[in-house]
Amino acid sequence: MSSVAVLTQESFNEHRSGLVAEQAGDEEAPAYKDAFPPLPEKAASPEGTQEPVNAWTSKIRPLKSSVITQVFHVPLEERKYKDINQFGEGDQAKVCVDIMHKTGAHLELSMAKDQGLSIMVSGKLDAVMKARKEIVSRLQTQASATVAIPKEHHRFVIGKNGEKLQELELKTATKIQIPRPDDPSNHIKISGTKEGLEKAKHEILLISAEQDKRAVERVNIDKVFHPFITGAYNKLVADMMQETGARINVPPPSVNKTEIVITGEKEQVALAVAMIKKIYEGKQKNATTIAVEVKKSQHKYVIGPKGNTLQEILEKTGVSVEIPPPDSNSETVILRGEPDRLGQALTEVYAKANSYTVSSVVAPSWLHRFIIGKKGQNLAKITQQMPKVHIEFTEGEDKITLEGPTKDMQMVQSQMEAIVTDLVSRMDYMEISVDPRFHRHLIGKGGANINRIKDLHKVSVRIPPDNEKSHLIRIEGDPQGVQEASKELLELASRMENERTKDLIIEQRFHRAIIGQKGEKIKDVRDKFPEVIINFPDPAAKSDIVQLRGPRNEVEKCSKFMAKMVADMVYLKVFSHKLFLSMIDFPIFKQFHKNIIGKGGANIKKIREETNTRIDLPAENSNSEMIVITGKKENCEVARVRILAIQKELANITEMEVSIPSKLHNSLIGSKGRFVRSIMEECGGVHIHFPTEGSGIDTVTIRGPAEEVEKAKKQLLSLAQDKQTKSHTAELKAKPEYHKFLIGKGGGNIRKVRDSTGARIIFPTPDDEDQELITVVGTEEAVREAQKELTELIKSLDNVVEDVMNVDPKHHRYFVARRGQVLRDIADEYGGVMVSFPRSGANSDKVTLKGAKDCVEAAKKRMLEIIEDLDAQVTMECVIPQKFHRSIMGPKGSRIQGITRDHNVQIKFPERVDGPAKGGPAVQENGEANGEVPVVEEAVAPADPTAPRKCDIIVLSGRKERCEAAVEALKALVPVTTEVEVPFELHRYIIGQKGSGIRKMMDEFEVNIQVPAPELQSDIISITGLANHLDRAKEGLLERVKELTAEQEDRSLRSFKLTITVDPKYHPKIIGRKGAIITNIRTEHDVNIQFPDKNDDNQDQITITGYEHKATAAKDAIQAIVDELEEMISEDITLDARVHARIIGARGKGIRKIMDEFKVDLRFPQPGAADPNQVFVTGRPELVDEAIDHLLNLEEEYMADVNENESKITYMKPAGDRGASSMDEGGRERGSSKGFVVREAPWQTGSEKAPDMSSSEDFPSFGAPVAATNKASPWGPKRF
């Protein structure tokens, strides 16, 4: 026998081509067992032999897939989205995508013949279950039903933490709503599919039925009998629960409830209730009580730890001991039980109460921690020997409480007293007062300082935490160590009082460069200023603040040094990166810097933003007037011009140019600018600008007040003339404290020397290294004369004398107030003269002056002038309403400081009173207001209503004429109010978003603008400010109104509406693909075009909004499109359906090309159309004809291919005709194939035969019984 088996497509092709037939003669056919190896056996054969190992029997570990697949079916009537045309797209597809994203499961949709929806869900089990729930709720219409079960069963449906309810909802794909506990309803609402509803109802009813079998019983038993129900250590109630199988819940002693709850099967509950009642009735009948008095402090010993002692007495005697609650003052203890057992129980109670005693040991509270020892080591020695003794330390009390068994107490007390006696004899303490702000410095970084002191002196130091704000530091330990530690701490604190802390603002990007690699650069700075501590912020904090701390002078020097380092880095950084930026610096008078900055930095910020430059101003406490601008050269120049314009506007600043030969410029500037700086300082701080060195320009620019500019010009030309003729320079030295005296008040002394000799004298600036060097410049003779006069003056200053003057004691306080500021000023001005006033309390008027003779005389003269001023001093009142005081003071009191300085007067403002203003609702003068007694400051008659209030009176002290001038200056600062009429509808635009508009105007004009509340509907806006600011603010506000009015008019013109009627069928054409056409019209004509919504009644109305002429133009553009569309025609042609796909092309590429080329629209029939060959062509008549011709040509071309392919198919051999001969690809006849031949097949062996297909034994039906047989099958062992 032979057999043919087809294995793969490749082998089949080989048979067709005759290759196998050729090889069959050469190669031997494979054996059947090699070609078809048998499947492995799970169990051993009856004979106990194992089959040979082969390809099928190799041991492969079975892998259980974690991914499952389930199919859900949604019938047509339950589908939420029934639009068949939108299958695979639209809302239904979006929902499916959302479910896949949300659950992680994979969904595949298919449509059944009955239009039902089949959804195959693949993924992990929990993802599939979640997806199923989402599918049911979002793709399937929902039904709802209610099921009623007893209210007490609801909690079993919910389960612990709601787990049962969640499981039920997931299992049935429903939403189950259970009424709240306070809702009396017993109906549970279920929503979901019909199938899910039935499943959920069934599950809920099953749970309820299960609970119906259980019972709950509540028995009220007096609280005093509960111990007899529970028994000692709850043994009795546990035995009852074990015996009956019911659960018995007895409330604990701390809960004041009498109800005992029994739950379980009905029979079990009934048995447990009977047992409980029997115990209760027996005890109620037989038990008696006795009451005894036990000290309240001993109650806890009777109770024992966790109530164990009470349980012990109950177990031994069967008597319950009732202790009053801790918050009760009662000392009565009640014993309840059988009469014959009460005596034994009473003995136990007294024994337990007296088993412990309490005593105390006197010990100062500051010694407590020494008694305890480090980590409780000292106490541990005692408590290990006597573990039952409790030792208690109370903070702030000078005693230690001991509590424990009576037999152990005496030994513990004697040990504690011995420890206390020893510590008192060798320990001491001291408290010192140190300002809390120095505490952290005393502690040091990481406690370094305080730990060193502790270790060195063997003491304990307690520094109070910051939140206590205490001055006291406590030192405890050895008496000598305490003394030494306190001395060292006080010295440290004293040193810190003379220290100063300064915050230096340095951009964080420079910190690393200042510190240097491995800290080498900052080490050099610290070596240069060893007394200054420099702290950089943590890089993570992103802070720019570098803190300097140390002696005042050293901190200032270090601050200047580091500021210079940063300035150099900025300069280098700009040019090293080749950013092509320019940097210009120019002087601006110091008094105008705040105006350039503006309120809140508004002006400087605006200039920076508009010119795209960086502008750096010197620090407020710096004497520098130079402003540095960095940026592009043209931008820097624009910024400079704008800053100079601000200065020019604020002051009478003039600019003058002087021609001086460029070869003299360096000599006029002097070393480090000393010569030119002396002229600038002498002439009221004018600015002198020399051209760049090497430029060859002779022009020197002088800028400043007109008079000072003229003065500087004369000195500059005079100095230049001296330099051109014969210039000579000499140097001499004098102590820095003499310089001010040599210069004199307002430069009077030095001017005399210069006028008499004609020489220029230049003093060092604070930045110069040699602070003693004085330079004299001029002709040789003039220099010699000036040097001679100055030398005599300096010599006289070195001649120290002492003089005495009389000063009335009433004036002493003026000189020594504010830490002697007046005396320090006199010393600075008059060569360091020392002025000593008598001690406070000494009744003396003698004041001692010590210093150079001329300086002493000048200082004495100045002090007499001050005394004369004080004697002539008057006090004057200026009445200004309190509400204006803050405005008069100015930011940080700057305005009032200016008046005080300019007029040399003292100004005192009254205390602020927050009461009602004059004319407002005030407290009644006589009687009570609002039922309260008014507080009267002074028991005087009612004040004159016309008299000013105390809080409005500003007091000025000084010379009369100066006070009068100061009063006028104060009144000039009183803000005035003006009103501007602005239409109400513009108010919100003036205010701006979140008040930004009005805030900007207030900052710009330095006024306060008050807009009335909306409910007032008022047109009046109030402007309050200084008189000279009001006009500018009013002009600015009116200008803003003009702008807003213009905008409003423009908005009105832009809101013109126009409608055009267009047939809705043309709307898609007007919109265009992806809105391209309508967007183009909107952009071109700057209009808004609105198409009707789906629900609008007028579906043919298109609304155009914009300027009238633009709206009309847009309408014309739309109408032109409509006219063009109306000219179009639509024709249908018949194209064979078999060529449609070829014409459409891949992804519609072919049809789009035809539509674009002929400017027509093509519509092919949908699947299932009545006429599958009908195609519609829409467009202009001539274009439609051309497109039709083109389509028909394509059809003819494509049909030729179709016919050719069909004719080929007719000549091909049918798939099932195996007997017929076939042709190869060249048309030659192929030889017949023998098929796939195997050797030693089962049916080829002696007794075997091929299986009979009609036999039910060889091919049994599913579910049919099969007779057992030992006969081996040709297909291998049978497995059924």
TrEMBL record:
Keyword Lipid metabolism listed? The answer is yes
InterPro entries listed in its UniProt record: KH_dom, KH_dom_type_1, KH_dom_type_1_sf, KH_Vigilin_N
Single GO BP term: cholesterol metabolic process
Give the residue spans that cross the bilayer. none
Where it mainly occurs, coarsely classed, is cytoplasm
MF annotations from Gene Ontology: mRNA binding
Keyword annotations from UniProtKB, A to Z: Acetylation, Cholesterol metabolism, Coiled coil, Cytoplasm, HDL, Lipid metabolism, Lipid transport, Nucleus, Phosphoprotein, Repeat, RNA-binding, Steroid metabolism, Sterol metabolism, Transport
Q: Specify the superkingdom.
A: Eukaryota
Positions the record marks as coiled coil are 776-803
Gene Ontology annotations for the cellular component aspect, listed alphabetically: cytoplasm; high-density lipoprotein particle; nucleus
One Pfam entry for this protein is: KH_Vigilin
Annotated region (Disordered), positions in chain? 15-51, 1212-1280
UniProt domain K Homology: residue ranges: 141-209, 213-281, 286-354, 355-421, 426-494, 498-567, 580-648, 652-721, 726-795, 799-868, 872-975, 976-1042, 1054-1123, 1127-1196
CDD domains tied to this protein = KH-I_Vigilin_rpt1, KH-I_Vigilin_rpt10, KH-I_Vigilin_rpt11, KH-I_Vigilin_rpt12, KH-I_Vigilin_rpt13, KH-I_Vigilin_rpt14, KH-I_Vigilin_rpt15, KH-I_Vigilin_rpt2
Q: Which Gene3D superfamilies match?
A: K Homology domain, type 1 (3.30.1370.10)
Q: Where is it localised? A: Cytoplasm; Nucleus
Q: Which purpose does this protein serve, as stated in its record?
A: Appears to play a role in cell sterol metabolism. It may function to protect cells from over-accumulation of cholesterol.
> Can you say what this protein is called?
Vigilin
Q: Which organism is it from?
A: Hucho hucho
